[in-house]
Amino acid sequence: MPRTVAFIPFNEFGEAIEAEPIYLMPDELEALRLVYFKGLTQEEAAKRMNISRGTLWRALDSGRRKLIRALIEMRPIVLVPPSTSSPKQV
Asked: Nearest CA to 20 among 72, 59, 73, 80?
């Protein structure tokens, strides 16, 4: 069974904040990693992932929105393992 990685926000007293998690899917994480961490262009990242540039753009947009929402709303972020088809299996 793949390992689940989660980032849990804490309040000012050091207590974990319990809230509905945001699930970051494998394609969203990979798109974010290639473009923002590795510095690839969207075209290069799309080729590396064997997807169209439009599909890559949608994964980037969805991933960015999820991360921003999690940060603003202080919600946990769960990285869905690649071999898992849905967050419900995490």
From this structure: 73
Q: Which position has the token pair 């974010």?
A: 32
Closest of 32, 36, 20, 33 to residue 78, by C-alpha: 20
Q: Which fold has domain 5-89?
A: Arc Repressor Mutant, subunit A (1.10.10)
Radius of gyration (C-alpha) of the chain in whole angstroms: 14
Q: Are residues 45 and 34 in contact, defined by beta-carbon separation less than 8 angstroms?
A: yes
- Digit-coded pLDDT (tens) for 27-82: 999 999 999 999 999 999 999 999 999 999 999 999 999 999 999 999 999 999 98
- Alpha-carbon distance values, 49 to 25, 54, 58, 77 (Å): 14, 12, 13, 23
pTM: 0.85
